[in-house]
Amino acid sequence: MQICQSQAELARHLERFERVAFVPTMGNLHRGHLSLVDIARERGDCVVTSIFVNRLQFGPNEDFDRYPRTFEADREGLERRGVDVLFAPDEQEMYPTPQVYRVQPPPLATELEGAFRPGFFDGVCTVVLKLFNLVQPDIAVFGKKDRQQLKIVRGMVQQFNMPIQIVAAETVRADDGLALSSRNGYLTADERKEAPRMYRTLRWIADEIAGGRTDYANLEVAGRAELARNGWSVDYVAVRHGLALRIPHPEGYDHPNLLIVLAAAKLGNTRLIDNVDVVPKHNED
């Protein structure tokens, strides 16, 4: 595996490959990230993974400084997985001058995650666009756990006519249902036992909808209440239409196959997010 820290190094090592598959990450890798690498390996003759903790997507009171940085362990894991190129730029390489040009994402970026993390998707889109320009991949793989991010990045690629296929990867879960996340490491032992409740709550709502319920607002309230009475500080539990994450029709005209249930909540000091399809669809979005 070749490690590149500059744009020039990266371009030099990628010029001989015809089909590049890319997995952008912020490091502290777990099985979920590595599953994206496996999908990339199936789609391209060169797999590039980036590790860059992007300051632009962290708010002033968020965890940029304490975000886990585990480069050596990440490097070893990626090498074992057969990654061809690890792109690991520093901030000076990514932002040699203050980033005064930003991508302005669509109104969806102010809802759900964007409502509780103002400016988050501006930072995500800006760094992803820069990474796409540097790597110039044919394929990029994003996990469905960050469903809103996946939707927004896909839309950015489409609207800017970028010749990149965005591939959705299923959320990887622990045996008890908890979605794997770098932030799970912040959980105490007791919080880790409680954490799978988010997935169980979302799955219950999804199953109720699949069974014919269309009183989405009532289901959202019930989901928030279930988490809150067990010690969670809930940002949102929301039923959305999968195509553009719009609010579903109140009369229940949207087919359950197209609906998603999403949530974000804090357990102790750790903010977790998750989502489920009402009707599971493997690697589709």
How does this model look, in words?
- There is one protein chain.
- The chain is of the alpha/beta class and 285 residues long.
- Helix content is 35%, strand content 19%.
- The chain is built from ten helices and nine strands.
- It has a six-stranded parallel β-sheet, sandwiched between helices. Strands 7-8-9 form a three-stranded antiparallel β-sheet.
- Helix 3 (71-80) links the parallel strand 3 and strand 4.
- Helix 9 (197-210) runs antiparallel to helix 10.
- The protein is globular, with a radius of gyration of 19 Å.
- The chain starts with a strand and ends in an 8-residue tail after the last strand.
- 36% of the residues are buried.
Outline of the structure:
The chain has ten helices and nine strands. The protein has 285 residues and is α/β, with parallel strands linked by helices.
The count of DSSP E runs of length 2 or more, i.e. the number of strands, is: 9
Helix content estimate: 25-40%
Summed up, the helix count is: 10
Strand count, sense and barrel status of the largest sheet are: 6 strands, parallel
Can you tell me the CATH topology of the largest domain? Rossmann fold
CATH architectural name of the largest domain: 3-Layer(aba) Sandwich
